[in-house]
Every structure is written in C-alpha cells, then in structure tokens.
User: Fold these one by one.
Assistant:
Number 1:
Amino acid sequence: MPPPAPHRLPTLTTLLTAASRHPPCRTLRPRPAPSSPSPRRLTTPASKIGQPTPDTHPHLLKPGEVTRGIQGTEYAARRARLVSGLPDGSVVVVAGYGLRYATQGIFYPFHQNTDLFYLCGVNEPDCALVLEKTTGAGYKMILFVKPTDAHRVVWDGPRAGLEGAVGFFGATEARSIDTFQSYLTTLTSPTATRPVYTDLPLHGPAESILNNTAKPDPSTTSYAFPPRASTPHPKPNIHPLAPHLTPHRLLKSRAETALLTTASTITSSAFKAMMRETPLPNTAESDLWALAEYTARRAGASGLAYVPVVAGGVNSLTIHYVVNDQRLRQGDLVLVDAGAEYASYCADVTRTWPTSGVFTAPQRQLYEAVLRVQKQCVAKCTVESRTSLDAIQRECWDALRVEVQKVLGRAVGVREMNTLYPHHVGHYLGLDVHDTFSVSRSTPLQAGMVLTIEPGLYIPDTAAYPPGLRGVGVRIEDDVLVGGREEGWAAVVLSGGAPKEVRDVEDCVRGVL
C-alpha cells in the first residue's frame, strides 16, 4: 500500500502523580544481570502468560521460541546489538501501548508498539522495557508489567506478570508498571547524568490520543518524561532512539525473512481466492474483503495487516479507498491492495484484474505498461544495482511516462504525469506495513531489506482521455527481498504466488488456474 504523508507519532500523557496514587508494589530481582540474558522456560502454572508459549501452544511455537518463529536467543542478540552501539552507562527506554477504545468498555484488538515487540516479544498492553547498559554488549533488562491480578484474570485472562517477565521473557528484573513513571522521573532529576535513548516525548499534553474513552481507564494511560523547572542544572541527557534502532530493524534476519515469506504466501492465496470469486453474480467489494480476511485467517494469519483497498472501477482512482461497499460491475477492473499479518510480520500486495475474466484491449494495454515497469523496478532490487528506493522511484516515473505516452499516443507533461502516477514506488516492510518509516528511502539497498515495489497508473474519468481508459486505475505491487550473495544477487519476490501475468490473471478469474 502506498504510504501516506508523514504524520506525527502519538503524544504520550505525563503522569507525575502516578506513583503516589498506587500502593507500593513489589519488585522481582531473581539474579544479577548476565552479559546477554536469554529467556528460560516456565514450568509453573504461570506459563499461561496471555500469549502463546511452547508449553501452551506447541502447535505454534517450537522449544526456545518466545514468539512464533523467533527464538529467545535472537531477541537477546537484538538487544545486545542495540546497546553495543551506545555509550557505557546508557539507558534505553521503550514504552508499550495500552488498549485503544472505540467507546466506553469496547476496545479495539490490541497491537503492540513494534519497537518493544522487536526487542523482547512481549505482546500485552501496559508494559515498558528498559535496558541499562553496563559495558560492551552487556546490559540489565528491566520489564515493567502489570502484576498478576486474580480478579482481572477472570475478565481479561492471564498476563505475564512479574514471574513471566523474568522466567519467560528473560528480564533481569521485573517491576510493576505503576512504578514506571517514577523511574522516568529519576532519569531526568538534576543529578541524573546517564544518557537516555528513547522516543518518548519530554512532556505530554493533557490528554492522550491513545485513549478514546469518555472516562479514561488507567490501563490505557501512557507516559512521558516530566517537564523540568527552570534551574541552573543542565538539560536532561536524552536522545532519540529511532536512529539507533531502525537500522537494525531494517535488515531482516533469516527468521524474519521466513515469517515475511509466509505472510506473503498466505496473501497470495487470498488473492487467488478473490480472483475466483469475482465473476459470481452480484459480487461486491465487501465480499472480496471478507474473503481475503477469511482466507488469511484459515491459513494461520492473525488477520489482515491493514484495512484493504478493494476498489472496483473508478474507485481505483482513490489511492487509499477503503470504503469497500460498492457492487462490482462487469467490464470494470478491480484493484485490491491487501496483506496478511503473520506472527506480527506484514505482507503488502496489490493486484488489478478484470471482473469479467478478460481484459478489454485498452485495459490490457494499460495493464501491460504498468507490468513492464514493475518488473524493471523489481529487477533493480539487488545489492549489485547500487541503488535506493528513491533512485528506483525516479526511474519508475520516467519509465511510466514513456509507457503512458505510448498508450495515449501523445506527450504527457510533468504536471499531468504527477496526476497519473501520484505516489512513491515503494516502502520498507516488516513488523509495520510502512516499516522503519524514519529511514530515508535514499538509503542504498542492502541484503536483508524487504520492501514493496508498486508502480501504478490512474487515468482520470474525464473527456481528456480515451473512453476505454477513463476511470481506470492499475497498480501492481510485490513484496521483495533485496538480493545479496545468498540469493545469487537476484531480487526475491516473496509474493510471486499471486498471479500478475495477463494470461495467469485471466485464467485465475475464470477458475482455470
């Protein structure tokens, strides 16, 4: 899916009196910090921690895995790589998300802060991760979580609790989340000297946009560093974490690549199912949406990674069309942009196909123009190409301009071209659909990057264009692993199972593929 314009990240509310409102809570300190802590298997009843474990879900997790497909040793290595690039004595602070509410007492499905998930795998609300670096790659890992509460277990199910934070997630120390705000305060005290790396704001407004209830539930409230009064003391030694963490997230491990491949494979199966469904009488955009969700979940995904675009006919001219409530018309094209989320890793694929099972001549001409450019751009996704997403975008824009001029039989100026092709060719992909958003797309491609390649052409529904092309939008998007030595220096298309050649698309819609 083409990324939207850059937006401001959620601002987190300051809770200066949080500690005073709660009774003292115990802290679990089971052992001194090792250089590279690794999680230990829980053998107590607390092994039910609110998310799958190898004990409770052996059909999903293998021994040693903290989350599906990712070993505890890999999480520990991620933390060690991060702190090894920071000064001795540094403190890394990452706050998780709380529940978001649609209305009083009705919450949305929980989605974790992906930075926190990347570093420890905890997938429950109301938690925070702190890494206190010692020397080299050594650190002390503190997890702030909600302590086990028998009353809340009846309503919400089990949580990791203090015991699970240490025993399963490998924390050196576990503390109640109620003490997190007071911990932040110590990091900004006049006598504090340790450098702090975090993406929390230095202070927050009166209300949190993460909490949309009429009467705030304390469990959804988030945190910020307290504002400091004007004093002769130096400012807090606080630095952004993203520049240090996102380069690690940008380059995927073999385990991450395997999960992204599975997400893309599941997505490809969903596209085949949608194509076959399209010719049925009275098929609506919402039918394809439902089928994509159903197919993804039946194949093991947690669902779709984002609200899909299912755009029939002229609706395809809206890049982020997500209303998905019109009936499909015979003779139109339908553009679908959808991706499965598997083990928290996201796919992002787009295909365009004829509702009747056969492209008209003008539709096919436009489709093949986009397909040629898409293949050219995919082929550039290698280390040896010495290129970047921005460089591919420039080549893509030029190539699409040449192609559309052939289709229209006339010259196309810069302004018109920006209307016909208004978005970027791609973005990085991973735990987020628009992954590592702070990394410039001018960054040279490196082995291990996974990204999307998604050129498109969108012909306005006006008399300035041939009747057979008016209101026709075509986008073709694949998930691509940047090829390095292990891939034979060739780009690897993870979503290749979704038909995109003209004959394959037509055959699939007609049910013969």
Number 2:
Amino acid sequence: MVLYDPAEAARPSVANLTLSDVTWNGFLASWSPSGVDFDGFVVEVTNLDNIAQSQNLSVSGGAVSLGLWGLDTNTSYMVGLYPLYQGVFLEPLYAEASTARQPLLGQLSVSNVTFESFSVVWNHTEGRLDGFVLEIIDSDWLLEPKEYNLSSLVTAHKVSGLRPSSDYVAYLYGTYKGTRTSAISVVATTAEEPDLSRLVVANVTSDRVSLTWQAGAKVFDNFVVEVRESALPSQAMGQVLPGNARSTVMAGLKARTRYDIKLYASAGGRNTPPLFAVATTEDVPLLGPVTVQSSGPHNLSVSWSIASGHFDGLVVRVSDADQQSEPWEVSLPGDAVNVTFSDLMDATGYNVEVYGFSHGRRTPSTLVHGVTAPLPKVENLTISNVTPFGFRVSWGVRQRHTREESAPNPSLFSHFNVAVTDSGWLLEPREFKVPGNQTHLEVWGLITGIGYEVPTAGAPHPRLGNRSGTLTYRCLPNVNWDAYTFQPFSADEWHLNSSHRTNKTCESRYHCTVHAIDRPEVSTSGHGNACLLESCVLSHGRC
C-alpha cells in the first residue's frame, strides 16, 4: 500500500469515524471528510474474535457513510477507513464496535386445531423487538404462503381459511429496525372436515331468521332444524329438509324473542352430532303518529316517529284528493323522521301515505290527510293620481288567516296580472305583468273621456294554477262602483255643489266620468261621516 508523502502538499484529512445504529447483525459507519474531492474510500471490517474473517469494501469519494450488515451477533469488530486521494492512500482511521445480542424467541406451539384453522402461540422473548412476522406455508406448496405482521405485544395469532386434513409449517421471526431474527418453526395438521359445520344465522327480522350451513362430501337423507323459545324449551317448531339443502328460513316467530336453534343431518337412520346457534328476533317495525302541517300555500310538512323495529328505508307519497296533478313520492333513509313537499297547490286537500321497508319487505301504510294554506287575498284595489291620460292602480295583500294587510311575498305570488280595458271594448286591452313584490302600477297613454275597467289578480308560481281570484275596478259613466276608497281632501281642493262639506274618507257607491277640466266638481248627499257620491268630474285631482 502506497502512502501519501506529506512533503508534497498540504495534507487533506478525514475525521470522526463513528459506528452507530448497532444491531445484532451490523452497524452504520460514518465519517467527515475535508472539503477536497477524494478518489474513494476503502472500508476494512475485521472480526476481532477471528482475524481471518475480514472484508474490504470500496465506496465512492463522495460517500460519507456505509451500512455494515450481515455480521455475527454479539461480536467485536474493528473498522478501518482508508481515504484515497490522487491515487495515494492517506493515513487511515480506526473505530471499534460490538454487535448486539440477538433477541431470543420463545418456544412455538399450536393449539385450537380445527378443520380450517389453528392458533400459533409463543412464550416470552428475550431482547428488544419492534414486532413479529408469522409465515404459514402448506407442506405441499399448493397455496401461496401467508404472512402476518404482528405487534411486539402479542403472543398468539389465529390462522383461518386453511384446508382440511393438510400439513402446515409456521415460521416466526422477530423484527428490529427492519431486520429479522432467526426463525423458529412448528408443524401443524388441520383436522378432517366434519359431516356438518358452519351453522350461520342471518337476516334476523321480527318474525323470521335465515339459516345456512355446510356439509362434507357425505350424502345425507335429510336435515332437521328445530327452533325453540329459550324461555319455553318444551315448545318447538321444526323443518325436515332434503339432503341437498344448505339453507332455510324459519318464519312465524315472535318479535323480541330469544330462540335456540338446533341442526343435525340423518343418513341411514343415524344422526350426525348437532350444531347449535342462538338468535333474538327484532321488534316489529312500526311508525309512530304521522302529522301533516301546512307551512305555506304551496308546502306540506310531514313528520313521524319510529315507534319500534328497524327500517331499511321509508317512502312518503302525497296525492291531491281531487287528482288534479300527478302524485309526489320520495324515498328516504330508514332513520328519517320528516320531509317537506313544495310546489303544491294552495288551499288543496292532500292524501299522505307513509310506509317503510324492513329486510326487503314492505310494512303497513299509515294514511293521513292535510290541506295547504290558501293564498293571501288581494284586496283594497284603488285608483289614484288620475289625469286625462292615466292613473295609478294600487292594491294590498292580506294573509287569509289575519286581518292585517302585509307586503306581497314573491315566494307566494309569482306576479300580478293587471289589465286595463275601455268600457266599450273599442280598443285593444292593455295587459301588465307586475312583479310579485310590487303593489302599484302607473298606467299612462289612455284616451280622455273614456271609462275603464281594471281587473287585477295575483298569479301563483308556474304549475300551481291561479286560485287567487280577481279584483276589478271600473271607471265607467253612470255605472255603480263598489268598495272605492276616497283619500282625505280639504275644502280648498274641492267645490261641493251642496251645503255638505267634509274632509273624511268616504266609502260608497258612485258614478264617475273622466273629463279634461281644470277643477273637479262633486255633488253629494248624506249625513255625518257617511255620504253617497252621486256624480264626480275628475281632472288632475282625485275622486
């Protein structure tokens, strides 16, 4: 080995050779080179108990560590690091470390052997482990090996899904920092498959249970199923099934009752050992009281409770009593307790049916009746701001169940339809569509001296029909009007052709004619605050 001559140049250096991450089969060597580019490094590993067992490993000049694995357990080693610089080896560094003692696994055994499973059990281990690996191999290598990663805290594991009458080998490893210990092993043989096995109870409802089982290759004459109430074992019900049967349904059971189930097979007059199971039937699925409330002219809210039992799902069906529209039907999860139907017709009776499904079967229906609320009433239709060429149409909206007038709700009325028609039907009617949140309309461009009719109606949303009714305001020569509201006026604004003057609101029947004049003239008769308006001449004022 050629060493570097220190007289040729300043010597590069490597320091801090350390050995860390010690396990039972190796450790990690690391070092700190100076800032020069080395050609490479040679790592020499020597077994101090057997100097003849040494090995040299080469790594690149940029390496700063090397894992040394596959060493003997509980053994001392000397590690030498030789830096190679410009073809010359520099002075080596040395470090010494001993591998740890390998953890010892306890004794491995097998228990609880059946025709399809067994349990692998091991006792206490010595040393630190991160976990275990259990490997199961069938001796004939007909199946892929099974491998289970287990916690270091467990001392047993059940292996299932095996073949009857088969030999298996179980290998157990300990793991630490990704390294496996030496394995311990044990051999196990599964039992023969019994004539009758795996009695399973499923699909338990309030009045029935489903049973399935497995049978071996043996041919049976028949199977016998006996079901008894646990509280009344003397009372039994049973079924005799053909030899090829592997399932049945036991119906006619009581709700909320525990039953003991017994199954055995018969062949040539001899019975197999029986299989046993226990099942408790559910409550009868019942709905509690169903209530229907109208939350608006177009909505019905349906609510109920689950009195007992299990529901897979629920169905609520709503149909109008007069069959004016298609029925509404909605499917809900089994734990739902309410639903709201929208876009219904106002002031309409609806039949509501609620039923459920439990384990694929429909439960009895509950029928109730509900009525949607009526639409608000459009009222107080008035004409004001009358000019020779137009006027203002105003109206109010009142909920049917109150006496107070309220602003229109656009969720109830889509819009208002206002038509302006001359009394003689000489002109084309003018129609206006007013938004549902508006309560007046300015009408202009009319002909002077002609009477007009102004029908106004609130229109529900599409599909719901028009059930709100129409109010009509008539301004006709010599035609009686109803429910016309006069605004208060002063004596300076009006000239009355009688001795009676008033500034009170007058609600009466009247005749109205529109003329283009400068000031109105009114003749009245009556007494007190009530008056009868006999004739009215309007200009820019109000009648």
